[in-house]
Amino acid sequence: DTGVSQDPRHKITKRGQNVTFRCDPISEHNRLYWYRQTLGQGPEFLTYFQNEAQLEKSRLLSDRFSAERPKGSFSTLEIQRTEQGDSAMYLCASSLAGLAGALSFGPGTRLTVL
Amino acid sequence: GQNIDQPTEMTATEGAIVQINCTYQTSGFNGLFWYQQHAGEAPTFLSYNVLDGLEEKGRFSSFLSRSKGYSYLLLKELQMKDSASYLCAAYSGAGSYQLTFGKGTKLSVIP
Question: What is the DSSP letter of A41?
């Protein structure tokens, strides 16, 4: 079990730049999620994929955020025209169909927008 | 809407038992999940309840009362390594796959 991996682990960018993060889920898991976490808060749901289909997006998700999972394996999360408020830990998680809610989280990508 | 409440911080002594409470108000409910998160690390899944009652898993147990919108996580024989944040999360189901997390309870275990 290699676990969920994310790349990069840290990203520092200037306001207005675009950033892209990658997530590789556990290979047998067909469900993939993106969450965002800021200091002192619990993770906040961003979006959910089942295989390659994006089935749910948070209503709070800005149009500047887009996610893909083109072949039902890895996923990318892109943030366009970054703002300082986007600074957070971006967590990817995966799970098997069955027990929704039992997620395996990756180590996260920490984004700092200057 | 969704609202999850849990205490911000707790302190307990090594070897003791601690109970971390969580109350929830959700528009739908299909399960309550507990995660552990050490500082600077990702959350790890600990336990879950779908039906009322107690679920035991080694030193960790979790309880749910659906009628009261209440859950707790019980940690026995506390060890220093249990110092972490404990996150309560509700799963609403009904076509949604998202977990709604509380802000977490930071547990400090002291000698």
Answer: S
